Amino acid sequence: MAESHSSSRRSALAVRWLGVGLATVIAVVTLGLGLTGRLTLYISPGSIWFACAGAVVVLIGAVLSFALPLGAESDHGHGHGHEHGADTDEDATSSRRTLTALGTISAGVVASAVVVGALVLPPASLSVELAMSRADATGPLFAGADTPTLGVADTTTFGIGEWSSVFATASRPEAYDGSPVTLVGFVTPSDEGDISLTRMIITHCVIDAQPAAVPVAMDAGDYSADQFGTGQWVEVTGTVKADADGSLRVLPTSVVEIDEPKDPYEY
């Protein structure tokens, strides 16, 4: 009897951990990242208030859950058996319980590993390798970046996302010739003598992140592509050059190595 009670208690604790426990840990991690300004490594700034508000609601629910007796989560659906076919029903119920237990254990291990990883591993931006792997699968347009295709826009606030759209779709590339730029991004390989200045663009969160890139003509000035390794963050100052074939690229007057910005994404 005591062994059965102990087993029931362990089962109830496991259920409570998989529900309230994991949700509470994730809520605490979310609030911690929000307070330290590192939540932008995972979601767009416009979504931070929603995520933090949701985390607060989860914590309130976790506190209120202590009013629920341990084991009450699974205390339902009992005492309604039928006398006819009792043996068959018992066998089917036993099989379902076994499958449910296996599924719960598997899900619990995976979910617990994710939560522990969130606690132990430091927040990090998306890798350069991921940006390069997604480069061939993404189009040149990003949210809010289609204005330049309608004519010459005010480019003073353009980032790499907007400029990559201009470079790919502008119907009058010569109109952008000589436009000054100051862009921050990381180096990825490009044509011989050039580099690509790349930045990850996020709409909502890192799941939908896509790379945007603009070519920088390193052989046109005092710099060479060999000076900067793949993944190195740089700040490029220069002007846009429209070539005879209608293609656009950046002619740099200054290329400075920098550390990864606190917010490495564009939105």
Question: What percent of residues adopt helix (DSSP H or I)?
Answer: 25-40%
Q: Which structural category do the helix and sheet elements fall into?
A: alpha+beta
Overall CATH architecture of the largest domain: Beta Barrel
Q: What's the average pLDDT?
A: 78
Biggest sheet descriptor: 6 strands, mixed
The gist of it:
The protein is α+β, with helices and mostly antiparallel strands.
Key attributes of the depicted protein:
2 domains, 6-stranded mixed β-sheet, 267 residues, alpha+beta, 39% helix, single chain, OB fold (Dihydrolipoamide Acetyltransferase, E2P)
Secondary-structure blueprint of this entry?
Layout: H1 2-35, H2 48-64, H3 86-120, H4 128-135, H5 160-169, E1 180-189, E2 195-201, E3 210-216, E4 233-242, E5 248-257, E6 265-266
Parallel strand pairs: 2-6
Antiparallel strand pairs: 1-2, 1-4, 2-3, 4-5
Helix pairs in contact: 1-2, 1-3
Pfam families: DUF1980_C
Domain DUF1980: 171-267
Protein name: Putative repeat protein (TIGR03943 family)
